[in-house]
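Q: Two folds, back to back.
A: First:
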Amino acid sequence: MLSAKAQLLTKVIAVLREEHEEFARVLADTSAAATDPDSKAESKYDTRSLEMSYLAAGQAKQAEQLVEALDLLEKFELLEFAVGDPIDLGALVELELEGVWSFYFLLPAGGGIEVSEGEISATTLTPESPLFP
């Protein structure tokens, strides 16, 4: 099971890297729009430049959070769990609810990502993941 978990973790990291690259591209565009001379306010009610700078700040924070998540996951050491062991970060948990079986991969970061390896399709959960809508 450890190799399947390692492959799943590799795929989660790849998804986060793609998200980070996309955020970097969008952030560059937003930052350029916020500082573009053409976005200068035309009246005291024109807040386009200010709104773009707020958007850029939010995107920069999200990009920073992705870097932190990547750092955590790239250093994360997977452990092997036996049936009946208490679960912890790194566990791949199989649950059955009303006849439907699902896998959940418990990680320190990167919650909500769906990845597959062979017969296993898992959703990542973190300590911060909401468990109930």
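A: Second:
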Amino acid sequence: MPEEKPDLKIVSVGDVPWNEVKAQAHADGRRVSVWEKFLEWSPERMVIYARYDAGVIIERHSHKSDHFVFVVAGEVLIGDRPCPAGTHITLEHGAAFGPLVAGPEGATLYEIMTGDPRAVPADPEGFEELLARRGVQPLPNPPVPWPDWLAPRTDSSGSSPGSPPGAAG
């Protein structure tokens, strides 16, 4: 049996489409979203180039895998900690972070997850309270190209059971 050789994969971020994966209606009438380019998505890893619109709020959560985040541009507040461009975040499998709030210019992130990338809510009640205080309404998750081999989405969202899965967080 011939030995399998590892693949060389080269992807240009400009060749990959943006996918809206989370959306919110803010009190000022804006639709605010998380956008992701899936640079690689396999059972072993997920590599994302993400854009957070200004003010988007992501719940405190963990992932079902190790998760690495690099803030490329803008700023994101993680809990009480400002994370400007140049910040690296490492979350071991199951470590929770957030809530995440994109700064006034939004944020661009480069993310890698090693295994199951699905998010697991860490404080749903606190998230609902935060959204209510800020006048933010979660909108149904937009459909994304969810792979057949990955189980349905696990994060809380504006969607109801049976709606198309998404990928953010």
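Q: And?
A: The helical segments are 124-134.
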